[in-house]
């Protein structure tokens, strides 16, 4: 079974976005394998993470719902996709 998930975070830049997401992941034993973030057009935050859920506490669905709620709380959109679906959608 594959355990990798792609997490994207997009929205207006504000203090603490990375901290909130990474704290949640650490508390749920979700390992960050890769992370890339940038500020676009002066004040828009964009982050993409590849995480490993092999030892995660809780289900994929719970993680996706929790991160969606965190995003709403801090004013960004957080989406999760299983790696195999992400790869299929972005295959050339």
Number of helices: 3
Shape: globular
Please summarize the sheet with the most strands: 4 strands, antiparallel
Structural class: alpha+beta
Q: Report the sheet-strand fraction.
A: 35-45%
Trace the largest sheet across and list its strands: 2-3-1-4
Distance between the termini: 24 Å
Provide mean pLDDT, rounded. Answer: 91
Number of strands: 4
- Rg, rounded, reads 13 Å
Low-confidence parts lasting 5 or more residues at pLDDT below 50?
none
Write up this protein:
The chain has three helices and four strands; from the N terminus they run βαββαβα. The mean pLDDT is 91. The protein is an alpha+beta fold and 92 residues long. Strands 2-3-1-4 form a four-stranded antiparallel β-sheet.
Give the topology, please:
Elements: E1 4-12, H1 17-27, E2 31-40, E3 44-52, H2 60-74, E4 76-82, H3 83-89
Antiparallel strand pairs: 1-3, 1-4, 2-3
Short description:
With 92 residues, the chain is of the alpha+beta class. 36% of the residues lie in helices and 38% in strands.
Task: Identify the notable features of this structure and list them briefly.
92 residues, alpha+beta, 4-stranded antiparallel sheet, 4 strands, globular
